[in-house]
Amino acid sequence: MNEQDTALLTELIASKICHDLTSPVGAVANGVEIMEEIGVEDDVTALIAFSAAQASAKLKTLRMAYGLGGADESIKLELIHQTYGEYVEGDNRVKQDWDPNMDIGFETHRGFPKLLMCCLLLAGDALPKGGVISVKAEEDSTLLITAEGENAALRDNVLNTLEHKTSVDDLDPKLIHPYITKLFANKYNYEITVSDAPENFIFLRLKQAAVS
Q: What's the total number of domains in the chain?
C-alpha cells in the first residue's frame, strides 16, 4: 500500500466514524432540549447539554481535518474559523484572533480546508497553558499560522513526525496527528513548515507545493 492509499483509507474511516457518531450525539442534545421544554433544568441537564455540544464540535472539527469531505476547496474560511472556534470553546484556553473574511490573495486548491484545520490543531496542541492563534496571508501564496502563549512549544518529536522522520513503529497517540497531517500534505500537494520564532511563539506556514 502506498502513501496515497494510506491517506485515502484514513479519510474514509474517519468519515465513517464521524458520520456514525453524529446521530447519537445529536440525539443526546435533542433529548436535553425536550427535558428543558418540560421544565427539567438543573446542573445535570446543563452538564449533559455542555458535553453534547462539545462532542458535536469535536466531531465537526475532526471530520474536517481527517474526513474526505474536509478536502473540498469550496469550504470557506468562515466555516473553518467557526468550526475550530467551537472546538476550543469548551475549555476556554485557546482563542482565535484572525479575520475569516480576509482576502488571502491566492486561489485555494483541493485539500486546503483540511490542511488549514490540521495546522490549527497543531497550533492549539503547542499551547499547554492556552493562548491565541492567528492566521495571516503572506507573499508567495503562503499562510502564516501563529500560536502565542506561555511556554508555547511543539511537543517532543512533533517536528520530526511532521517531517516523517519518525518511524511508524515509534508513533503514539500524541504523534499521530502530525504524522497524518504530513500524509495529507503530500496527498494534496501542500507544504507545512515550522519556522524559528521568539519565545512563547510558534510559527507554522502552509503553502501549495511547487509542481515538479
A: 1
